[in-house]
Amino acid sequence: MDFANLVKALVLAVVEGATEFIPVSSTGHQLLIGHFIGFHSPNNTFEVLIQLGAVLAILYAYFSRLWKIATSLPNDPRARRFVGSILLAFIPAAIIGGIFSKMIKAYLFNPWIVCATLVAGGLVLLVVDEADPYQRTDAQGEDDRAVGTERRQRMDDVYEFSLPMALKIGFFQCLAMIPGVSRSGATIVGAMLMGASKRAATEFSFYLAMPTMAGAFAKDLLDNYKNLSSNDALLIVIGFIAAFVSALIVVRSVLDYVTRHGFWLFAWWRIIVGSLGFAGLILLG
Length: 285
Prior knowledge:
The chain has helices spanning 3-19, 26-37, 45-61, 63-72, 77-108, 111-131, 139-146, 163-174, 183-193, 198-224, 233-261, 264-284, and strands at 134-135, 152-153. It is mainly α. The chain has a two-stranded parallel sheet with strand order 1-2.
């Protein structure tokens, strides 16, 4: 391991953690960055292992909430329904990913597809963010109803998502198997289209990330453990820590951000990164 590879790995790890829980596609960013800086690990082993840092970051940030849910399960039907909704939403990705993951990686994991899906996903996110036929009950909502503006009230509480709604969100999440789509982006858009507020949609994507990312990590580790080498131990440890720290910062700040500002910044970020990626592929190959 040389210093140049260490810097490249650190960059990829920070990007993984910073982008995993926002709708910009961590996989897409890693594929593009790895392509242009020339970082490649056998079967993406490094990228697989540093995902655990992001998984642990969300578990750490949400530990008190998860503990409260776990301890209330025996006596609280609302908590049981919420856990059931998360597990139900996880099932489509578990089944489809388990069957088609190798095929998807073989045919879709290339930078041209990533650039296309980044741009397309950014445009979809802009439309969903701006259209917003729902809203919470607030002063602005009262003004809109006073002038006859037709709007519906958004769902603000993730505990109130119905089981059928959760299952549909789970199928939306499956779109993220295409690199560049974004797991969080697909679940957020799906939840918003079914009536969730921006904050609730984002929070549900956090909870759904826990079993989804843990399952994906376990499967990838099982498939690739033979490629692990003790020579890369320091690289992996540094990458793990960097992914954990950057993910933790994002998780603790993004809910308040999207509540106030929506998703336009993430949408334009996707469009710009995808467009620059196309330019780089054309000019540099």
